[in-house]
Amino acid sequence: MKKTIPVSILLSSLMLTMFFGCKKTSTPAVDPCLNTTITITNSVTATVPCESTPSGSITITASGSTGFTYNKNGGAYQSSNTFTGLAAGVYTMGAKDANGCTKTQVVSVGNATAGPNFTNVKSIVSSKCGNCHLNGGNDGSVNLDADCSIVAKWDRINVRCVSQGNMPPQGLTATQKAQITAWVNAGHKFSD
Ligand code: HEC
């Protein structure tokens, strides 16, 4: 004879299964970042104007958690906290810990200021190269109004004003020539 199970028992066992089933699988959604406060500090090196490749850099230091990786402008995260080759501008730097908790900070990279040797050369150019090369003057296809034009022409300025000594036509003092030489030897950059 065939056994039958009453429908009421079937239903209640199904409900029990559903009840305990649900209870077993539901884990409360805990935000792993709830008690994590990440703090970012930064150190910036300005980029040097007039150079063909930007030289700014940002190093960010994160604290408040562990296992940090770092990114710039929402890009891929990397293990190094230093970002180099940066042009002047504003960057959003990020840090992410081992649990995926993140923090960002906006950091500005500026332009390096003129160095003492360049400042000396600039002053020689301003006082000695006159309208031949300044105020739009373009003798020998050389105009030195812009700081970066002086930087770009460092070699020809060195040759004509120091080695050959025939520029400007009235000549430079020994001190002025020594100042040009000092700038050339320092690296002839805007920041030197
Ligand atoms: C009275 C005008 C005059 C003054 C002042 C003068 N120059 Fe010139 N310069 C010229 C002329 C003209 C030429 C083109 C003929 C030549 O190359 O000699 C020239 C050419 C040059 C050249 C390009 C030629 C090359 O060899 O590449 C450089 C660089 C230069 N001058 C640098 C200077 C600098 C730097 C000063 C200031 C410290 C200066 N000059 C002052 C008239 C002047």
Nutshell version of this structure?
Helices cover 34% and strands 21% of the residues. By secondary structure, the protein is α+β, with helices and mostly antiparallel strands. It folds into two domains: 39-109, Immunoglobulin-like; 116-186, no CATH class.
Could you explain the architecture of this structure?
The structure is a single chain. Helix content is 34%, strand content 21%. It has 192 residues and is α+β, with helices and mostly antiparallel strands. The strands form 2 sheets. A 3-stranded antiparallel sheet has the order 1-2-4, with no helix packed on it. The longest helix is centred in the first third of the chain and has 19 residues, at 7-25. The structure holds heme C (HEC). Heme C is lined by residues 124-125, 128-130, 132-133, 139-140, 142, 153, 156-157, 160-161, 167-169.
